[in-house]
Structure formats: C-alpha cells, structure tokens
Design brief:
The structure is a single chain. This protein is mainly alpha-helical. Helices cover about 60% and strands about 10% of the residues. The radius of gyration is 20 Å and the shape is elongated.
Length: about 140
C-alpha cells in the first residue's frame, strides 16, 4: 500500500471541514472555509481535485454535485503527522515534543487533567510490557 502524503496547511483546513461534516459538496466546504479564510469556491474545487489525486479524499456523485469525504479519519492523519514531526524535528524525543507544545500554549485545567490521565495510562502500559533478555 502506498503512503498517503501529509496534507498542506490549506488541505488540512479542508480536511477539518470534511471530518466535521463527514462528507460535503464543494460549496459546503467553501461556505465553511470562507468564514475564516480568504478563498473562492473554484479554489476549493481545485484543491479537492488535487487532494483526490493525492489520495487524501474521495468523492461520490449526487445529482450534478461531487460529494467529498476524507480517506483517513482525523486520528489516523494526526498520528501520521505527529509521528513525522516527532522523528524529523525532535529525533524521537517525546518529552521535547510535549515541552514544545506546552511552551507554545498553556493548557487549561481540564487539559492538564487529561494529560495526567494519558501519562498514567502510558506508565501502566510500560509497566505491563515484558522485559527482554536477562533484564530484571
């Protein structure tokens, strides 16, 4: 299976609309994007065609409209992008990735609680992993 390329910033904006709506026409995507991006409908249509060629979206025909949906769910796309960022920018150092994110934006109390839960779950998974060789 060939690897689907990572989306550009504009393609990611389009994917976010499609993830939210699950599927949408060019017009629906355009109407969502124009609220916060300077973009025209023909540009959205061109992006969606290119994104389909890249394997990021697919379409079905409904009447005279193409209805687009993302090929991969948000979680799978984000994991791929974070993995690439982790390897390419942070040389696999998870703590440096997290530190960079925390330096960029202070988490809310709710986000801090969720981070604590995630850390505990990671510790629990790590403790359950069998040790290799003669490690004791």
């Amino acid at each position: 299976m060939s690897k689907i390329p990572e989306p550009t910033d504009r393609e990611l904006a389009i994917l976010k609309v499609l993830w939210e709506l699950e599927e949408a026409s060019v017009r629906q995507v355009y109407e969502h994007l124009r609220e916060h991006l300077p973009i025209v409908q023909n540009t959205v249509q061109a992006f969606l065609r290119t994104m389909e060629e890249k394997g990021l979206v697919r379409h079905r025909v409904s009447g005279r409209s193409f209805i687009y949906c993302p090929v991969k769910p948000r979680e799978q796309t984000s994991k791929s992008m974070v993995s690439s960022l982790l390897d390419q920018v942070f040389d696999g150092a998870v703590d440096q990735l997290v530190k960079s994110a925390l330096d960029l934006k202070a988490p809310s109390a709710q986000e801090l609680n969720k981070l604590r839960e995630l850390l505990q779950a990671a510790e629990d998974r790590s403790a359950r992993k069998p040790r290799k060789g003669g490690d004791r």
